[in-house]
Amino acid sequence: MAPYYDDDYADLGRQTDQAFYLALVQQLGTTVVDIGCGTGRIAIPAAEINGTAVLAVDRSPAMLAVLADRWAKRPRSSTHLLTIVGDMCNLPVRNGSANLALAAFRVVQHLSDHDALTDFFAECYRLLTPGGHLALDVFQPDIDLLENGSDWSVDIERSGESPDQHVRRWSRARPCGQQAFDLDVRWEFPSAGLPTVEATARILWYRRDQVLSAAGRWFTLKQHYGDFDRTPPSDNAPEQVFVFERRQ
Fold first, then answer.
1. Measured between alpha carbons, how far is 158 from 161 in angstroms, rounded to an integer?
2. C-beta pairs of 208-215 under 8 Å, 24+ apart in sequence
3. CA–CA distance, 137 with 9 (Å, rounded to integer)
4. Are strands 180-188 and 197-204 parallel, antiparallel or unpaired?
5. Running DSSP on this structure, what letter comes out for residue 165?
6. Helix or strand or coil: residue 240?
7. Which residues pair with 139 in a beta bridge?
8. What's the CA gap between 196 and 4, in Å, rounded?
9. How many Cβ atoms sit within 10 Å of the Cβ of residue 84?
10. How many other CB atoms sit within 10 Å of the CB of residue 130?
11. Residue 178 pLDDT grade (very low, low, confident, very high; cuts 50, 70, 90)
């Protein structure tokens, strides 16, 4: 998945979340932990903000390798970006070492089970300084998708200068239990004749009350939005975006 992550993300048109999280870094963060950082689409520009140090954590060495390659090619006057392999419920980070933690692009929906969300909040409480902040987002629950899933369909197709840059991505959703589905993704290279690449990710869904219940012992909700443009939350909003403050 790592080689296609950035191009897929751009093709899906998700840009407003990046601006939202970078604004939080400018407002709240001097020492930032980017949890589930992927290829660095938040971590790299955050580290380029003056006075900001970023620790980028992901469980995928392949994702971190792409991040490191991208970072090495960026013009910069500082090296305030470190990467480390780690699990979001057992982060290799010292107690009280950051004042802002980010879990962007629905990272917590990849937890092993719903109970693990409480463990995630406990871990973020541990690594943040008193009064530090945690920001995250999740999908608004789609009841029809949870109950019925979806058939294979092409959601991305792009071309480039060479045949191997012609990529067709298929995806489908398979319900696999209460508030969860398996997302199957298949990348084809029709112009180059390369082998098809397949991946599956389990996606968990959370209602607002579940997120708040899991966070309540350690965090106070400061902001809650229905999208990254800071529109109010509603049942019809596409996202659930939360900003929490660590309790003392």
1. 11
2. 208/233, 208/240, 210/114, 210/117, 211/117, 211/138, 211/240, 211/242, 214/117, 214/118, 214/120, 214/121, 215/121, 215/242, 215/244
3. 16
4. antiparallel
5. G
6. strand
7. 239
8. 13
9. 14
10. 11
11. confident
Helix (H) or strand (E) holding 209: helix 208-215
Nearest alpha carbon to residue 103 among 131, 65, 71, 138: 138
∠ CA 44-69-196, nearest 5°, is 110
Q: Extract the tokens encoding 154.
A: 């092409």
The CA distances from residue 43 to 1, 6, 174, 238, in Å, are: 19, 13, 32, 24
* CB neighbour list of residue 13: distance below 8 Å, 6 or more residues apart: none
The predicted-structure confidence for 92-139, as pLDDT tens digits, reads as follows 999 999 999 999 999 999 998 888 999 999 999 999 999 999 999 999
**DSSP three-state, residue 226:** coil
- Integer Cα distance of 85 and 101 in angstroms: 16
Burial classification of residue 103, based on how many CB atoms lie within 10 Å of its CB (0-12 exposed, 13-18 middle, 19 or more buried): buried
Max distance between CA atoms of the chain, in angstroms, equals 58
Contacts of 4 (CB under 8 A, 6+ apart): 167, 169, 187, 197
At position 7, the amino acid (one-letter code) is D
Which H or E element spans position 81?
A: strand 81-85
Determine the Cα–Cα distance for residues 7 and 164; give it in Å rounded to an integer: 13
Q: Would you say residue 79 has pLDDT above 80?
A: no
Q: Which two tokens stand for residue 50?
A: 């003056």
